[in-house]
Amino acid sequence: MRARLKAARGPRLPPENGLVPADELNERVIKVLDGYYLIGVRRDKESFYALSEEDLKDRYGCVCGLFLNYVMDGELDKAWKIIEGMDEDYWLRHTFILVFPGVSLSQFLKALWKVKELKIRMKSVISAGRPTVLNGVMDFTRLGPFLEGKKDLFIDGISWLYDPDIAPATYELGLAEWYYQNNRVAEAGKIVRRIIKEFDNETQRRLMFVALYLKAKVEFASDKIPDAYGYIKSVRRFAHYEGELEFSYNIDAAETYAALFDGKYEIVSGWLASEAPNEFDDFCMLDLYRYMIKIRCYIVNKKYMSVVALAERLRPLLQEGRRTMDLCEMDLLLSVCYFRTEEKELACVALGRALRIARRRGYFRLLADEGPALLPLLVHYIKTRGETPWLMSLLEVTRSVAASYPLYLKPINRGGAVFSKTEISILKFLEQGKDKKDLAKFFFLSENTIKFHLKNIYRKLDAGSAYQAVWEARLLGII
Known about the structure:
Low-confidence stretches: 1-15
Distance between the termini: 71 Å
Shape: elongated
Number of helices: 26
């Protein structure tokens, strides 16, 4: 039965050179799992948006492309109107619901039941090129607590979304992700090492990316960063061999994420300058993982206003899409940003939101993996808000990560400024609250000479006051 599409689109764009004809667009999307990936759908965005109602008739591939671009643009209301305009028994309606970010769990399960009833087996793109199955195009982490007790039920459901032959391995991959988040790292590693070979073929490219990335995360948690880099290189070789640009963008971000842990800021700066998504240009929800990495890059570059601006742009989209895990991660990074700018109350409020979600949903490692970036804030939060067994357990693991990766999210000292022994001594006295007169008396120097030293210190630290200079020097480990 053909879809009855309501008017969901905006005004039709005027014809332009380079727009892909409707028939060709339709064929490209029909072959989506044979090489035309979501990034290809995205590149043809203007062509999809230029389609007329007549163009959409009898071309379900074109309808798919239009729907997916609305989702990637965060235009969920327009995407839902496409769903609403379809007959209840039309198979495409239910497949759309299964990849629609804003549906409730009951809506998702109802659509899955209908897919089974219609005997439609999907070759799903649920990971959407992201390095996760539990938090891909939809946030499935709410199902995490049921994974262990409902194995057969999950495998049956997965068999209608992925290749039935690898449904058990896909289930175990999701279970391993859940174990990792709940700090059951050894169990997660054991599973992923056992099942990874199941995805080593050209039809399971997306799942291989997820499995290799999780293996790298386990290595990070086990304090084996050289091995983690090795796995990222393996992912890159695999993606390059298969020609998956959809993966390459996120692999670049994953490598940048690894570089943040050991202070390889030349990689960070290069990615931020040439590869990072531009939130002021073609804002795309397909880039969500990369936006989270970009927020971290903003933090190390002390671009705190940019952190707040990007976070608040993402917030309504994440809320509408029910992306609870991403909201938790965003508030966590926002709290780090506020704490580094001495907005301690705002930092505690943002961290409190993240903690409530993490405690309820089991995102333990999501927080603990921030290690040295989170540690001072978490200590402050516990001192001012009170301790609980869960918080103290989180503090213990966060300390361990901080000890293993002390350079993670450490601010960049621009220009590699070198501080003299006198300048370092002056900073230590400023830290104690001493003024220029005290400094002049202690060093047997004139106040004008002290002013000269302070001017150099402020320039090197990009600071406007003694207070800010002390704060920046602490962050950089100078004092």
